[in-house]
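Priority: low. Protein: Lipoprotein. Input follows.
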Amino acid sequence: MKKLLGIIILAVLVLAACGGNNDKKVTIGVASNDTKAWEKVKELAKKDDIDVEIKHFSDYNLPNKALNDGDIDMNAFQHFAFLDQYKKAHKGTEISALSTTVLAPLGIYSDKIKNIKDVKDGASVVVPNDVSNQARALKLLESAGLIKLKKDFGLSGTTKDITSNPKHLKIKAVDAQQTARALSDVDIAVINNGVATKAGKDPKKDPIYLENANSDAVKPYINIVAVNSKNMDNKTYKKIVDLYHSKEAQEALKQDVKDGEKPVNLSAKEIKAIEKDLAK
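Result:
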């Protein structure tokens, strides 16, 4: 009887160790346009007995709450500056950047003009209304020579910090997801890369003015994969990140974003340096 019991226990342990194909389940929240890359990650993860579920969000304000509350395990939709501002606005949020994904250059789009120099006096403009992306959009307008901002504008400035508006632009801040929809009703719109792609725009060819992806100034806007801070050493999550940066997933990304995004894979040391600069 003891021998039989031992065999049964051993069999149970072997089955538990095998765990089946759904031994590890990871839910990733996304609100961006690199869906094909994550679908490829999902496909590749099966080989490691990791069951990946991709949850789509249409509101930028929800994926971090879901992650902090434990409703999802990882998210990949935001850049460093967005997470920094979110954590400052939501005390107690324990979310950290595990890896980087892409730099998605911000663009100025128009259905009415072909050249940024042709922006007329009194032109109507829409920009994203969340803190980090609004500041980024205003910096882009300044870079294009349309406005001037305070010297200490930083990463959280608003339209109140415009010091010169020679063309008397009528700037309105709306939800980032609405900027592309508003394009037909305004003269120019500053649209996030992913939102533009979803709207059928080519983020590399269609903007009449585009952010310089090679400038150090855009480092805070590199997109990240975020996890709950206590899970920074989770081996399964690190494997997911490795799969995202695999050749197969990167090829899928390139197809999905029409080569309009720049893949970025920073080291942990480089990530910490950016986070440290933001915390100043």
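The longest strand covers residues 95-103. Residues 1-23 have pLDDT under 50 and may be disordered.
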